[in-house]
Known about the structure:
about 270 residues; alpha+beta; Four Helix Bundle (Hemerythrin (Met), subunit A); Nonspecific Lipid-transfer Protein, Chain A; five-stranded mixed β-sheet; 7 helices; 5 strands
Amino acid sequence: xxxxxxxxxxxxxxxxxxxRAAVAAETARFVAAVQDADLTTAVPSCPGWTLSDLVKxxxxxxxxxxxxxxxxxxxxxxxxxxxxxxxxRQEEYPAWLSDSATVAAQAFAATDPELPMWAWGADxxxxxxxxxxxxxxxxxxxxxxxALGRRAIVDRPSAVDGIDEFLVNLPxxxxxxxxxxxxxxxxxxxxxxATDGGERWxxxxxxxxxxxxxNTGATGTAEAAETADATVQGSAADLLLLVYGRLRHDAAVFxxxxxxxxxxHWFANSAF
Length: 272
């Protein structure tokens, strides 16, 4: 999908979520989780990764996105090379991750969030990168806490915003999530319903692609989403973990009904 095909849809997300401040807060929670942990611990929700890999990935993303903000990029970057300043000793990784959030904060302070910029997703403004950075950080903070056997909590406003951000941007993710191209259908609809706030997201699979129906999502209305071919219901926090593949739709925390084959097709091909 090229830029001319992008849906006319508000992209900043609920005003209750300050993405820039939340990056700092989520990074601090991540650092606190891994500060005294064994960084060789496996991360089941990211098969093949250890906590060390998780920290390195998150800090690298923060530093790369920050470099894009400083550059005010107007076209897809030709390289992902950035000076990570990664320490040689793994025990210094938590402090390095904390410093990565400082690098991000400096980039945010130097960049107007309304500045037009290239982005791989729906929102072609600098704010896209802060929002994307937040959910990279939040999900991997959750991964770290789950790997350490701790309860991972996601506040409801962030969860609602994160579901919206994921579903709005997923149609554009084929360069790094190639199976997304298989999400096609004859107009079939999947409804994700938050039981703790009333938000509804209805995704429609069309012959030429897929996307959110109008008037659904974080800023939509429940009345616009009363019917669907398949539905999954759960708390916003659990739905966020669902769309990101950290929970299965048949987990006990969800109720689901409708076309099971459609749900299986969605979850088999929507990995981000």
